[in-house]
Design a protein that fits this description.
The protein folds into four domains: about 110 residues, Helicase, Ruva Protein, domain 3, CATH 1.10.8; about 100 residues, no CATH class; about 90 residues, no CATH class; about 55 residues, no CATH class. It is built from 18 helices and seven strands. It has a five-stranded antiparallel β-sheet. A two-stranded antiparallel ribbon has the order 1-2.
């Protein structure tokens, strides 16, 4: 009964009524405790969960210092993808081949997809973070940047605690509250955790089979389409209308082929499948075709450059060649990107936070302005565009 009640509270946690944040930290914690006991959780369990809770300023600093996502795709991917990670990925694929066989049979998620996440999230389990997870979640829920994301995770963590699967004082992970080898939040663990090695417990920090199968189930829950591709490098003609490109502009594969888009290696997906053309550094840089499963990546991580790098690395781990960098035009540094975003805001565009990160809304605004100014509308901002604005 307690478990169902707390889980119900966790599922309600994203509602506006529960999205309070800020104010005195102690008072905020008292509010959380009151909500948990009102929902039916034993007061002693609640007190034990929050007994040593504290606000963690290191979590807030980490949340504010994500400058790595300002890097362009080529620089970012070169930083994350190393020969060591490629080699270790091959070794892990061989070591856990039976687990990946099971994942592909049950969930239709390719092994490369899980290997890439495993590599990027924790370096194949080697470093899973040393932040106290409870403190991180409560700190981020108290902070008013994204309380709707983190507040429900606190109640999910209490549910895990009630099950005996979460130690408030000892469970550690990433600064944003993710736990285990593929870094899953408590709610995702509740819904998608799998005891794949039949140990009797879901142990995402110590069991690779549990972590990998749970990650695959989570992707399925997010909408992964079984046994379908997600990304592929392509060659695009110079005559392509660049305004048609972008992650929000799907067309059928057959239509792209009719315009001269071709796979760099192998064949494109079926002609009736919807796909987008992504030019992360403009029409002179790398080019990819993204299929519907690519969009699921954004349910895992919302950074465009991270998602594209993870999706590409998954293809590389399955045999795709190193992508062709091309000769992209010089882009903007972080300060220039913030200046660009501010100028776009002045012109009425919603680019979100002025953070120096080239996200989806900034790309869309850039593409519109490029078209207006007679520049190649490839969504890649350059100093020339900034000068004209």
């Amino acid at each position: 009964m307690i478990r169902a009640t707390v889980l119900g509270l966790a599922l309600l946690g994203a509602s506006p009524a529960l999205a309070q944040c800020g104010g005195d930290f102690g008072t905020f914690v008292d509010t959380l405790k009151s909500e948990a006991t009102t929902a039916g959780l034993d007061p002693e369990t609640v007190d034990a969960f929050f007994k040593t809770v504290r606000q963690d300023p290191k979590v807030l600093r980490a949340d504010r210092a994500q400058g790595v996502f300002q890097k362009p795709f080529i620089n970012f991917s070169n930083r994350l993808i190393s020969q060591n990670r490629v080699d270790r990925g091959a070794a892990m694929e061989e070591k856990y081949s039976d687990v990946f066989d099971r994942i592909e049979a049950e969930y239709g998620v390719n092994r490369g997809v899980l290997l890439a996440f495993w590599a990027f999230e924790t370096d194949y389990g080697g470093y899973q973070g040393d932040f106290n997870t409870r403190n991180a979640l409560v700190t981020l829920a108290h902070d008013c940047r994204r309380p709707e994301l983190f507040r429900p995770q606190i109640f999910a963590a209490m549910e895990l605690h009630a099950r005996g699967d979460f130690d408030p004082d000892r469970t550690k992970g990433a600064w944003a509250g993710e736990i285990g080898m593929v870094q899953m939040l408590p709610r995702d663990i509740l819904v998608n955790g799998v005891d794949a090695d039949d140990s009797g417990k879901v142990e995402l920090a110590s069991s690779a089979p549990d972590a990998l199968v749970s990650g695959a189930k989570m992707l399925e829950h997010m909408g992964w389409r079984a046994n379908e591709p997600w990304l592929q490098e392509v060659v695009v003609p110079d005559t392509l209308d660049w305004l048609l490109t972008g992650a929000s502009k799907p067309r059928s594969v057959a239509e792209w082929q009719a315009m001269g888009v071709a796979a760099r290696e192998g064949d494109l997906a079926a002609g009736d499948m919807q796909a987008t053309i992504i030019l992360p550094q403009g029409h002179k840089g790398p080019a990819f075709i993204a299929y519907p499963n690519f969009n699921v990546y954004f349910e895992w991580n919302q950074s465009f450059v991270y998602v594209l790098t993870a999706a590409y690395f998954a293809t590389q781990l399955e045999g795709a060649p190193v992508y062709q960098s091309g000769t992209p035009e010089t882009g903007l540094n972080g300060a220039q990107m913030k200046q660009l975003q501010a100028k776009l805001q002045e012109r009425g565009y919603d680019v979100g936070e002025v953070d120096g990160i080239l996200g989806a809304r900034t790309r869309a605004a850039v593409q519109t302005e490029q078209q207006r100014l007679g520049l190649p509308a490839d969504a890649w901002p350059t100093p020339a565009l900034l000068r004209q604005l």
